[in-house]
Amino acid sequence: MAEVRRQKRSVDLTALRESKVTSVPLIGRGKVRDLYAVGNDLLLVATDRISAFDHVLGTGIPGKGRILTQISLFWFDFLAEVVPNHLLSAEVTSYPAVLQPFAEQLEGRSMLVKRARMFPVECVARGYLAGSGWKEYREHGTVCGIRLPEGLQDGSRLPEPIFTPATKSQDGKHDENISFEQMERIVGAEDAAELRRLTLALYTKAAAHAESRGLILADTKFEFGRATAQPDGPILLADEALTPDSSRFWSKAGWKPGGAQPSFDKQFVRDYLESIRWNKQAPAPELPEDVVERTKAKYLEAFRALTGRELQEV
Fold it and tell me: What is the tally of structural domains in the chain?
């Protein structure tokens, strides 16, 4: 038992669970990202925190923040012709002087971005039936009110990608699926239609690339906003893009409808937490070193497959 505790501590020493950029105001900490105000812009720092079942765990995944940031940067560039994004720079040397004392901490895991007024909806595209979509289909034959063909299975490919928006619950923990009509009432009919168009266009291009790399993009969610400096300007893709934290990636070779598919995300973490029968209440348990290492390996595998590159020093 003492050996297990030593292993957990050794893992945590290499994981950045909380950034400390003391020269600028901290706006807030999400499940993974820390957000700072830098003049009229924002600094996003992806930590190595990992959450499961709506709780941030006591153990980080070393290098996870860098992996997620580099995946997002790949997609921001790849999808720039479909929609502009909020990125100003990810080169720490070009950041304002006030951030330079923290360069080592920020390198590879941060982005300087435009401050944006975000739409209060999650824009979800589904090309396959899984997760909450599978649950609703099994009960009602629909996903977010969209009627689907009979006879589909968990993991089935849909006849065509569908747009299934979601909104945050009051407690800020759960995404709640809503109909397109509900979304129209929240953001307005014109913006709702454009967000749907952009979401499906992004999904289509990203899914085709993923498939060419041997991966299935089962579903994903995007967040959009408009730059606060240009309230009437174009819609921007914001936050992150198509990482294993916001998307389901499956192996194309291993895809077999009829059950849950192995995915490139925190599957090992969820499986471990289920195996110890955690009651999903705080405090969240720590993770053993083998679960941490296998989870990190999955994130790295997704990065390599999607980008065709190696990621150094994670």
Answer: 2
